[in-house]
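Backbones bend. We report:
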Amino acid sequence: MRLYIAIAGIFAVLAALVSAAPNFSFSWLHWTRQHHPSSDPSSCMTPSEADTTADIFRLLIQNYTHDLALTALTEDFHDWASSVNIIINKGGAGPKSMDAPTFASRAAFIDGQGKQPPIPFERIRTFAGCRHVAMRWKTGRSANGHGTEVDDIPVHGNVIIEVKPSEPGNKYNWRISNIWSEFNSAAWLVNLGVFKPGGMPLEAQDVKHLEEFADEEPVVEEHMLVQQSL
């Protein structure tokens, strides 16, 4: 009798497991999708993941490492920033086009950003989306580490960061695929000593230029004289 009771108990346990299996399978799949966004094309970042993405951008500026760039950026990563392009051109129209990406691949970003000194970086506010993050940021030492640094005018900027699901095994669930960033490049160029703001003492060459300009007769177009006589 005891044998029959034991066997009946085993069958009861097995039946309970079988009946619970669909729910267990669904729960496991649900957990997997939450933790591996690449398995679900409609998945979005969690608030925590969006915060991590924003902080990756900060780290790429303030505490850059090749390992971080390789882990957090897609191979076809693009960085769009006309503010950076105008700084590369030292205020000129070229050679870097204002319509071109600053870096058109992860390799180009690593080659360029890896040579820059770290810049103190402060996150002001983060706005999380589904697969993008917008952020307001600030640096008080944009020319930090440069021998030409002459000022520390605070520079504020905005950035939009677009992400794609990362591959399984990556420490980050999302890789950054595109960055659109703009900031006060005029203050940045002043801090670097490239631009000299108005109101500063004139140097000898500036005075000479003004004197030469003052000696020139004003040029008046003929058509302007005709209009004035009418």
